[in-house]
Amino acid sequence: MTYRGAKLAVLAAELSAVVGPDGVIADRQRLRTYECDGLAQYRVVPGLVVLPESAEQVVAVVRACAALGVAFVARGSGTGLSGGALPHAEGVLIVTSRMRRILEVDPANERAIVEPGVINLDVTKAAEPYGWYFAPDPSSQQVCSVGGNVAENSGGAHCLKYGFTTHHVLGVEVVTPEGELVWLGGTTRDVAGYDLLGAFIGSEGTLGIATKIVVRLMRTPESVRCLLAAFPGVDEAGAAVSAIIADGVTPAAIEMMDALAIEAAEAAVACGYPEGAGAVLIVELDGPAAEVEHTFAAVRQHCTAAGAFEIRVARDADERARFWKGRKSAFAAVGRISPDYIVQDGVIPRTVLPDVLRRITELSAGTGVRVANVFHAGDGNLHPLVLFDEAKPGEAQAAEQLSGAILDLCISYGGSITGEHGVGIDKACHMPRMFTTDDLDVMQRLRRAFDPAGICNPGKVFPTPRLCGEVPGKRKGVHPLQAAGLAEQF
Amino acid sequence: MATSTLGGLRLACADVAEATASDTVDGVAARWVAWPRSTEEVSAVLRAAAGLGLRVVARGTGTRLAWGLPPKGLDLIVDLSRMDAVLAHTAGDLVVSVQAGVRMVDVQDALAAHRQRLALDGADTLGGTVGGTIATAASGPLRYRYGSVRDLLIGITVVLADGTIAHAGGTVVKNVAGYDLCKIYAGSLGTLGVITEAVWRLHPLPESRRWITATTPDPSGAAVAIAAVRASQHDPTALEIQRAAPGDAVTVGVAVEGVTGGIDARAQAVADLLGAAAGVAVAVAEHPPGWWGQPLPAPQATVTCEPTGLADLLTNGPGSLCGSAGAGVLACGLHDDDRLGTDLARLRDIAQRHGGNAVLRSAAPHRKAGLDVWGPVRALTLMRRLKDQFDPDHRLAPGRFVGGI
Amino acid sequence: MTAGAFDDHHPPAAELIKDCVHCGFCLPSCPTYLLWGEEMDSPRGRIQLMKAGLEGEPLSESMVGHFDACLGCMACVPACPSGVQYGTLIADTRAQVERRYERSLSQRLLRGAIFWLFPYPRRLRALRGPLALYQRSGLSRWLRRTKLLDRLPATLQVMESLIPTLTRRQQLPQWVPAQRQRRAVVGMLTGCVQDALFPDVNAATARVLAAEGCAVVIPRGQGCCGALSQHSGREDEAITFARALIDCFDAAGVDYIVVNAAGCGSAMKEYAHLLRDDSHYAPRARAFVERTRDISELLAELGPIAPRHPLNITIAYHDACHLAHAQQIRSQPRQLLHAIPGLTLTEIPEAHLCCGSAGIYNLLHPKPATELGDRKARNLLTTGASVLVTGNPGCSMQIAASARRLGHPLTVTHLASVLDASIRGVPLCDPSSAPTTPAHQNR
Question: Are C92 and C68 found together in one domain?
């Protein structure tokens, strides 16, 4: 047994005493079921899996890891799309799927307190009877955990109007990488001191493990109106989006799909979108009826003026759900028109949308790699789906390259390499293209404040030479972290 | 010594001078003032200051320099008033990039021309600079609907104590690349770095607005009215209260914004709701009441509480109260005499019963001395470590922040 | 292929496994994931184990344990956006397990006993006498009171708790004529458990079919459909049963084969897959599948012609997994119930979740089955309904037992019985009102 193997064996015994034998997984076959999250390209069999049931158990687990200097990675439902919860081969995977109690729903104080393993949609289900809901609604909301939402700062189709997880969490109880239980934020706003809560949300599990989360609840809107508009092409649809925004309307959501994405959705769920559409828009407005009624009429006009050849207005919740069905199924649906595909996630300023789409089309034509486009058009968040067939030599590599080129395109237009899926393991190598070495160094300072030993989800978010080869950019001397043996070169 | 320091600073920045009598921070006099014109110049100044071991405070218009505690020592003020440009505003993207020294009111004016706004209001906020607004996390009535600095700031450029220029966030609203460092600078009182540029998320200016107010002698009635508005589906933009002194009547103010076609119906619906809940007469106006978004004179505290604590606060809270009852963040004006300490303690007591806290924001330095300005602070160890990472020599606004940071 | 968990006789197919993109949408639909919150007891995890098995991991005790723990409820299938054919994967895996894995002696004995008894209507019927005596003699109550029952093995305790109060069983005729016009000739599967423990459901089914214009053929000597065997990976046994049943109904010359037990219907619709290697039976199996209908499916297809009388009751409808998930039959039963005047239909929270019956799952895995049964019963009780309607005898027994255990005995009945009561204008669940011959009313 290697030295590290021996450490894990010691840990396994220790942790069994903490969480019970049912809560520790150490045999290879079972461990393999945890080898990847929602991004299955990356696979690492964890050294050990632990399933704690309380914050106290998480504290004990993390302390045990810290004492032995063993890395750990937290994971919720394992649905992340950037490999953020990819296990560490010699580390412990701390899975929160058994911490799934909704501890409190308090409509009078507009909040709920939940454990990290609680499923996003279950918060809304618990609050709904009182007329409230939890606003972040990532496409995976029926399965993703609130702890994962906190780690990734998850958004969703409706974040155009309502913001991201960071806008809907008041406080978190956190186990620090040293095993201390602390509260960041609380049950009110403007808590004294640095906004560590804000820094923690979206830190992709590198600053600690949330064990309780105080989420804000929102009042369900009085009126929700939704329309589906079909356009000859993406240019016309893009023009409609610009016109709507320029008119001062803030829809709850504006979603766009291009012809290939529509084809896939039709194949998968027969969503029945208007025939011959080169692009469709789903526009949803919500709020007080008196407001929505007027703005909805304006939105219709803008769609027509921009060239929509058919506009359908949802008559009821069922029809609205049908509009959304095609959109929500789009990712998985692409599997019906292509054996393999990459889901990309990039952001551009909304105004350059037509330019960027044209460039993507050119890239696609130039390489012969097909790209289906699905996006949150309201906030410029693109989800190009790059199609390929792994069985055909060279296709995977070409798709990979095109997918990377799209990110470069996003950066060159002043956008971001990720709008909601996170950096994780997948995009760590792209970080130096968006941030300077100094920017990344400063982020590492925050990380060191939380995790001086560097054992909390190491290897994620920030590039390491091991992952990325030589990092571009000049460097002067040895970085202090590296000198101190606290970090690999990043 | 002084001359050589000035010489050293002048190498870094063209505009450096000896401080005058008015160059103080919360009563502490500075020795030099620098007026850099770019992020690079700020970086050069801070690098020079690092080499010289100078303690530094950044200054905008100085509106809120008395917030927090006086610095433990001060050598150099970095004045950002010459970095006052709006760098880029793409209306179609609802995003604006600005330098930190630009006044908020000037930003708003520039945006209003495009029927847009940065959803941070309040007379106090508007009078200050962008950098000061971020450093103090100042907010106004609009925070009920749009949040505060932390919720609207999407990108930032900061110069750290050693002169390192660091960016975080970006120029698009939706972005989860890297740590969201915008958050830690919001409300940090200049203790982590000098903010030089900011990128904000914008919102369209509404076509029409209405203010609905109701004044009731019964503080619990006011709390009930506020709870009713919160639980309604009228989606107000602001939900404020104002009370001049303990025992006085409480005024509840609601702002509704939206398209002209729907505004009167919505305002009336809110008025009906307020009237029914508080049992008093209600007024609907096209302009805000005089107290709307006005700052309270020092000494004043910021008091926070959970929504259900509002009745307790309105009934038993000392001093004058004003602010966002909707967000649970209020300003409390306290007596500028010996009662300050006991009133602050009482206020904090009430707040803590409801999950909140009371922080003494501004008061004359001699009044703050010996008082626990911040109240209990959680996760202080992590905050100290963060400070150590960003400013290991504790030269940026030393002692101004929580726990002596 | 010799290495790894599977041999090359229909191992779980790599191409089907590849369809799984590991998105996790199946997790909240899976009863065992809800119970234990661990990956290897989720559909995604089990597929991962199959993959590991194909890649060389041996068929270990723990791997078999996780396959065995799957209820086969198929709730993950509609939940999957990528269209993964989990049903096929787990069926092929189970067959491999049965063939290649040696279970412990006690497990073998238990399974042997179950499969000696349940797929044989005559053996089950033979038990009716002793069971009725046991119930009527007071022995049952005495055993409970003295807590002697608690000393029995878990499986026997579960069995004891499941058995419904037996009603008089009447022999159904082989031919029931259609009333009003004749719209179809249907063959009716009487089943094993349904026939032995719920004979009144079969009688009601025949009456309803007749009332709705179906001539009903009920072949004597029909055997088991093989559902339990098929769902447990006992492939050869299942094939034998399937061939016999196809022979039996082919001889009857009917337009449709109607089933009133979800588990049976779902298994019969799998015959084409089950007999895919049998050149003689494969085409006949496909034709058989074409003609197989759940009772609710057929009645909805034909549309009602018999007038309904009001039933002023509030009922909850429970989706049997093998109807809702395996056969996608959700709207038809609800539609039929909605059409009954006076009847209020409520929905059960967590409707997609299996009740834990799952064929013989509750006998093999009493603990999780009981937890699921109690969860279902608690959810059901929140609806305030006084009657539970479901389309599967296993679910009926399981949920009734859980409700009794929670101290809230419930009337649990079959859709056919409700329709029968409404068509005949008699109160529901009053066995004494049952006519002596199935086709007696409306004449």
Answer: yes
A96 — phi, psi (to 5°)? Answer: -95, 15
Whether residue A29 and residue C83 make contact (CB cut-off 8 A), yes or no, is no
Nearest to B383 among A153, A193, A201 (CB): A193
pLDDT category, A85, cuts 50, 70, 90?
A: very high
Residue C428: per-residue pLDDT = 86
CATH code for position A174:
3.30.465.10
Class of domain B300-368: alpha beta
Please give the pLDDT value at position A238: 93
Q: Where are the alpha helices (DSSP H) in A80-130?
A: 120-127
- A172 Cβ neighbours under 8 A, 6+ residues apart: A150, A183, A184, A185, A197, A200, A201, A210, A211, A212, A213, A214
Which residue range forms the structural domain that includes residue A313?
222-337
CB-nearest to A143 from C27, C63, C66 is C27
Dump pLDDT digits (tens) for A231-280: 999 999 999 999 999 999 999 999 999 999 999 999 888 889 999 999 99
Domain boundary pick from C300, C331, C362: C300
Interface test with B, best of A190, A220, A479 (most B CBs within 10 A): A190
Q: Does C56 touch chain A (CB under 8 A)?
A: no
The residue in chain B having the minimum alpha-carbon distance to the alpha carbon of residue A435 is B167
Average pLDDT over chain C, rounded to whole?
A: 91
- Chain C nearest-CA residue for A122: C28
Query: With an 8 Å Cβ cutoff, are A423 and B329 in contact?
Result: no
Using alpha carbons only, give the angle C392, C376, C112 rounded to the nearest 5 degrees. 55
- Contacts with A, C 61-80, CB within 8 Å: 62-63, 66, 80
- Cα–Cα distance for residue pair A408/B114, rounded to 1 Å: 31
* Last residue in a domain, options C300, C327, C358: C300
Q: Are A89 and A115 contained in the same domain? A: no
Which pLDDT score is estimated for B295?
92
Chains touching C by CB (3 or more pairs below 8 Å): A
What is the percentage of chain A residues whose pLDDT exceeds 90?
Answer: 85
B239-298 pLDDT, tens digit per residue, is: 999 999 999 999 999 999 999 999 999 999 999 999 999 899 999 999 999 999 999 999
Longest dimension (CA), chain A: 71
Q: Which of A15, A97, A27, A95 is nearest to A61 (CA)?
A: A15
State residue C353's pLDDT score: 95
Distance from CA of B356 to the nearest CA of A (A): 6
pLDDT of residue A466: 55
Q: How confident is the model at residue A468 (pLDDT cuts 50, 70, 90)?
A: low
**Neighbouring residues of C308: CB distance < 8 A, sequence distance ≥ 6:** C339, C340, C341, C419, C422, C423
What residues does CATH 3.30.70.360 cover in chain B?
A: 208-285
Tell me the CATH number at C21: 1.10.1060.10
CATH of residue A23's domain is 3.30.43.10
Topology of B2-81 in CATH? Answer: 3.30.43
Find the domain containing C419 and state its range: 307-433
Residues of chain C numbered 265-284 and touching chain A (CB < 8 Å): none
Burial B335-356 (b: 16+ CB within 10 A, else e): eeeeebeebbebbbebbbebbb
Q: Which of C39, C62, C81 sits opposite A332 (nearest CB)?
A: C81
C143 against C41, higher pLDDT: C41
- What is the pTM assigned to this prediction? 0.94
Whether A210 maps to a domain, the answer reads yes
> In this structure, is residue A80 part of a structural domain?
yes
Whether there are 3 or more C-beta pairs closer than 8 Å between B and C is no
Searching chain A, which residue's CA lies closest to the CA of residue C55? A29
Encoding tokens for residue C383?
């609806």
CATH for A258: 3.30.70.2190
Q: Pairing state of beta strands A279-287 and A223-231?
A: antiparallel
Architecture of domain B208-285: 2-Layer Sandwich (3.30)
Q: Which of A337, A361, A390 is the last residue of a domain?
A: A337
Mutate: best of C6, C15, C18, C25, partner A, most A CBs <10 A: C25
Residue C128 pLDDT exceeds 80:
yes
Domain count, chain A: 4
Task: Determine how many CB atoms are found less than 10 A away from the CB of residue C194.
Answer: 26
